[in-house]
Fold this protein.
Amino acid sequence: MSRIQQAFDALGGKKALIPYITVGDPDINTTLALMHSMVENGADIIELGVPFSDPMADGPTIQRAAERALANKVSLKDVLAMVSTFRQKNTVTPVVLMGYLNPIHKMGYAEFARAASESGVDGVLTVDSPVETITTLRDALAQNGLDCIFLVAPTTSEERMAQIGRLASGFVYYVSLKGVTGSTKLDTDEVAAKITVLRRYINIPIGVGFGISDEESARKVAAVADAVIIGSRIVKEIEQNPGKEAESVGALVRNLKAAI
């Protein structure tokens, strides 16, 4: 049983909180402190963004985070090393890498999957890998005990939902609205209706992200989903509190966890 499945099982029906941060924003040491602070304050799974020069699914807030990380010369290998360091103190909390295919393709799928597993990564989500072309990467991940996590969009057809349901493991990430990360027009009734359809095809937990910006929106999403995924709001907290990132993000995560 994967750490991700164990985390959901341990919740006993309660909802998971999955905060996102970009590795290397504002620097590597702070990233490590943020990871531990988020866990201490209620994070059930951590989602780490792999810095990339063309983050097409991300809005301005996370784009700036990626720029800061890249200015620090943070690479995919640095991300894996960060997870290894985190695992020296925390062997329980699942870690998911979220990013784009290019760095993984450059490293090589088999080598990446092996290195990710050895570092303590539990799941991988590649934003720009459609279900039709992901088999090689998914197989490499599976061979190394890693979950392959898929995005589902509001425009995803039921046929593709069924395809994803056959291939996905860990959890499925439902993008709650059209657009990029950090968008704010969240319609929770629409999300609830879509999740009802998704559950016909998906028999693993469903997390919802994009557009969740405060305790109220987190609470509403938690009422219909298995996990609440929050990225831009966390990254903005980092951006606005230089020198106090871990403390500020910890307080935010604690409030969000209480809300759900």
